[in-house]
Amino acid sequence: MTEATFVLLRLALWLLPAVLGFLAMRAWRGGRARVASGLALGGLLAGVLAKPLPVGLVLLVLGFLAGWGGASRGAKR
Fold it and tell me: Which keywords belong to this entry (predicted)?
């Protein structure tokens, strides 16, 4: 494995908890609790797998906070 491949995989593993946390919060605010719980569980697993450990969990929390703000400003039906 080359250095660039290793760096790209590490970045993807660091971004995955944040993205899953964001999507989980958007799903929860949209009324899809089962989808949100699955995404949050996946984000928690990805956050635990990211090394060093606190970085993955902090990114998961940041994803939750980022998803909290935008869900209520959706399209009016």
Answer: Membrane, Transmembrane, Transmembrane helix
pTM, entire model: 0.81
DSSP conformation class of 30: T
Rg value, the chain, Cα: 14
Inter-CA distances, 4 with 1, 12, 18, 71, Å:
8, 12, 22, 36
Write the pLDDT tens digit of every residue in 25-54. 999 999 999 999 999 999 999 999 888 888
DSSP string, 4-53: HHHHHHHHHHHHHHHHHHHHHHHHHHTT-HHHHHHHHHHHHHHHHHSSSH
Q: Alpha-carbon distance 47 to 60, whole Å? A: 6
